[in-house]
Automatic annotation (TrEMBL):
One of its GO terms (molecular function) is zinc ion binding. GO terms for biological process: chromatin organization; V(D)J recombination. The lineage of its organism: Eukaryota, Metazoa, Chordata, Craniata, Vertebrata. This is Recombination activating protein 2. The keyword ATP-binding does not apply. Transmembrane segments: none annotated. Keywords: Chromatin regulator, Metal-binding, Zinc, Zinc-finger. InterPro entries: Gal_Oxase/kelch_b-propeller (IPR011043), Kelch-typ_b-propeller (IPR015915), RAG2 (IPR004321).
Amino acid sequence: LPPLRYPAICTLKGGSESEKQQYIIHGGKTPNNELSDKMYVMSVVSKNNKKVTFRCTEKDLVGDVPGARYGHSINVVYSRGKSMGVVFGGRSYIPSAQRTTEKWNTVADCLPHVFLVDFEFGCSTAYNLPELQDGLAFHVSFARNDTVYILGGHSIANNIRPASLYSIRVDLPLGSPAVNCTVLQGGIAVSSAIVTQTNNDEFVIVGGYQIENQKRMVCNIVSFEDNKIEIREMESPHWTPDIKHSKIWFGS
């Protein structure tokens, strides 16, 4: 198994009942405060008498390999019968040449590159899209068919949580992939939230921060209809006192 870390995890393929379900683990901080660029693929080998056996292998990548980071996202898109991983954003330590004793643990946002990762062949390619100006860390992301949506996040350089919303569409023809980014309206300012898919056309966003040290107690529904996205507030649960008064709210 990979060492302990706060990772980015996603389902690669197959539904919750599928035997071919795989999970991708990448990056994150280890307990000794180091960042990792390792990528692991975890899959179910067998289910026998309610005992589940997993296999976890380290995936070696070639090409433009995403550097060590945390607070990023991995999603999987599907196009023309093929799948591809999409890595974006996050935060990393400043380059080693700039690290001094006083600045050893200083972090900076990663460059706003979009990485396409082919898990079958172990190839990775970076794309620099002009619409993406910041490598927003702790953003919310969700994938639907051939498109990844990037919502909110935090820019450490400007110390802002922009109400941004981007769609990154990936086309996978026989030749080279085509990656296009579109700036959408209707985003919300949020970082470090949790997103859960409730059905094919709906996601729910819970928690996170709207400004520094101010927790976000509202919840949102993200719905799709005819390829149009809508984000609206939903009725929040009755938060317990320990949640209301806690300083930490999910992925802080």
